[in-house]
Amino acid sequence: MRVLPGLFPRVMKRIPFLLRSPLEGARTLVYVASALELGNVSSRFYLRCRERQTNQSLTTPNIARRLWEASERLVGAKGLTSFDSIRAPAMMQATA
Predict the structure, then answer these.
(1) Per residue, what are the HEC states of the chain?
(2) Which letter does DSSP use for residue 54 in this model?
(3) Cβ neighbours of residue 49 closer than 8 Å, sequence gap 6 or more
(4) Domain ranges in the chain?
(5) Would you give per-residue pLDDT tens digits along the chain (96 residues)?
(6) Residue 12 and which of 20, 51, 87, 91 are 20 to 30 A apart at CA?
(7) Is 37 helix (H, G, I), strand (E, B) or coil?
């Protein structure tokens, strides 16, 4: 266990992309939420204010439904909004 305190700084120096300030961490979220040109965009992934391609297996309706249901459970909002009425049509357009 005594090695751990000395090892931690060396590891963190090699992966600086994990150490972002709150401002840097929020930048993409604020951009996506407020950019007028993204007003009609749905079911896309953004990293560092740029759209990125994701693995196609992650964009299937089955995976999206499972994520939706897990999110509902985590926030205690089960049944407030239907996955099918909100996300499924947008996902079908995105994969077409």
Answers:
(1) CCHHHHHHHHHHHHCHHHCCCHHHHHHHHHHHHHCHHHCCCCCCEEECCEEECCCHHHHCHHHHHHHHHHHHHHHCCCCCCCHHHHCHHHHHHHHC
(2) -
(3) 27, 28, 31
(4) 1-53, 55-96
(5) 455 667 777 777 777 666 778 888 899 999 999 999 998 888 788 988 999 988 877 778 888 888 888 888 888 877 666 666 655 445 445 444
(6) 51
(7) helix
